[in-house]
Amino acid sequence: RVLVFGSINMDLVAKVSRLPVPGETLLGHNFTTVPGGKGANQAVAVARLGIPTAMVGRVGKDQFGQELLQNLQSDHVQTDAVYIDASNTSGVAIIAVDDNAENHIIVIPGANGNVGEEDIERLIQQLPKASVLLLQLEIPLSAVQQAAQAAQQAGVQVILDPAPAPTELPRELYPVVDIITPNAVEAGQLVNFTVDRPESAAKAATILQQRGVKTAIIKLGATGVFCATADESFFIPAFSVKAIDTVAAGDAFNGGLAAALFQGYSLREAVIWGAATGALSATKAGAQSSLPTRETFEAFLQE
Ligand code: ADP
């Protein structure tokens, strides 16, 4: 199956005409709580494509924690290895969105920030049943490093989404990653020059490979995806869709990529699966609410 080791959050979203200035109180129009966190989003993306998926991470011993677990289970994500941490709150993102879709976001990692040794042990127990591990950067970097190392030793393919954008990654991390999947901004941060087109993505990919990753996949939004391995490099243009909200498009891409690799497809086919899942998620509002089911996915590829 596919394992995801990462963050689980509840997003608290307030809609307001304009964002408040410091010290100001405003009335908003509406409030929703929606499950999020890059780890959980990627797990749901894989599971919706009909692939057996398990999550390893932490929620708090609070109402959000219960809701987050139930939410994962309702999408058939295994949660046996999600620890309920009584010493912290569940991770939350407090989000204000105005009428122009500008936002303010405060992320409180909560239990995600406690992910460490004990969770690595739980992950190691799951590795023999897994073929792909998805990682992101919303849990402590030391845990990401250890997870990647353990997975590599167990012969499990490691996919790292270096998001949210880090200024730098430790050099020891690159050699234990099979596939790194930055978007344009994240790639730019990692290599210190602007990445916006296939040409600059190709340069960035070469640098990431020199640092030790086997394959670099650079997500260029509505442009497409650049991919470089030791043997080949190629560009896949984005599917043409009517995009309304690209929230979680990157998570959708990684879910589609992992689902295809789990099924034994080639890297090129897996990038196409990622691009299709990303494009579909851009056609619907929200994060997990925008992730396609296998049925929707197959109908889209038949078109
Ligand atoms: P992130 O969401 O991490 O910023 P991107 O915006 O690059 O990442 O989106 C991830 C992938 O989703 C893209 O590489 C592409 O395959 C797909 N995608 C995103 N936006 C669009 C769009 N407007 N049209 C078609 N595909 C898209």
Automatic annotation (TrEMBL):
K(+) binds at D245, V247, S281, K284, G286, S290. It is found in: Cytoplasm. Pathway: Carbohydrate metabolism; D-ribose degradation; D-ribose 5-phosphate from beta-D-ribopyranose: step 2/2. Activated by a monovalent cation that binds near, but not in, the active site. The most likely occupant of the site in vivo is potassium. Ion binding induces a conformational change that may alter substrate affinity. The keyword Cell wall biogenesis/degradation does not apply. GO terms for biological process: D-ribose catabolic process. It holds the Pfam family PfkB. This is Ribokinase. It comes from Chroogloeocystis siderophila 5.2 s.c.1.
